[in-house]
Amino acid sequence: xxxxxxxxxxxxxxxxxxxxxxxxxxxxxxxxxxxxxxxxxxxxxxxxxxxxxxxxxxxxxxxxxxxxxxxxxxxxxxxxxxxxxxxxxxxxxxxxxxxxxxxxxxxxxxxxxxxxxxxxxxxxxxxxxxxxxxxxxxxxxxxxxxxxxxxxxxxxxxxxxxxxxxxxxxxxxxxxxxxxxxxxxxxxxxxxxxxxxxxxxxxxxxxxxxxxxxxxxxxxxxxxxxxxxxxxxxxxxxxxxxxxxxxxxxxxxxxxxxxxxxxxxxxxxxxxxxxxxxxxxxxxxxxxxxxxxxxxxxxxxxxxxxxxxxxxxxxxxxxxxxxxxxxxxxxxxxxxxxxxxxxxxxxxxxxxxxxxxxxxxxxxxxxxxxxxxxxxxxxxxxxxxxxxxxxxxxxxxxxxxxxxxxxxxxxxx
Length: 413
Known about the structure:
mainly alpha, about 0% strand, globular
């Protein structure tokens, strides 16, 4: 009888822990998009398992930054956008920073929306054979309706399901590929930089450490938690969800490194060809489900990121239910639909978005460190010495990556 009671208590405890999963899953669903799948596939095909360490570093960096923004939201009851704006007293500086943050996030989210839509459409096209030109706008409208619902819980559930689907698809393919475990371990924990790998390393980090995810997280945690005692649940959510997102990205790289080493990657569909000996005729459809999930989740997160950032900086009330929040969300989706329909995705716009991101990420990381040491806002919950050391190292890396990204974008114009 006692054992039965203990079993039920353990089961209840496990279920309660699962219920804590939410805001972190949105972050994972955000950074595991078509861009991440393509970059991880190219990294594995070109360098085998050698760049796995870059993903491990990216995931740890993301966890550290998201732990800080989650604490800001739960304890300070502020979105990162509002906190950034309030960090500056001078009106000119305050308004300049506010405009730059909003413009950078909005342009970045809108610029890559068409690519995410294309990835989502490709997944459905592979399974159904329907025209991509028809699928794209339909998917865009579905995401638009999701945002217009104004329901955080609905969006959270959809993103959790998408993360689960991606986990099943990509982790299963990795297991089926039977990678060299010793090589995987070495690649993950022994940093190396093979000739010609620097751009790929930066791309792997850049597709995982995403600026607008910091704004999303500081806002979404307020929808779920409100007490200091909730910090433990929030950290568990971050470790589990973002850890799973990192594992999904790593599984794609590992599968590619096992099956495609030395093969030139043109599209993500090339990975399906390598899976056919393992999964047979199911290979293409199986991978298509993962690509669809990645594209759909990334589309939703991009629009969400632009809307939450704008709402936070301008201090709009009522969160996702605010009509202005929905207006920004809709604008990003509509721009994506028009760009996709007109096949309008000029390189100059993408490079401009890359340049803005190169400036935004290190700047936001630095300001976040200042905010997280503000005792007036956070009291006893300011950063610990260990968190400040980790955060400072991350800021230095972000500045280096941002500078390289900015220089690359400018030289490519």
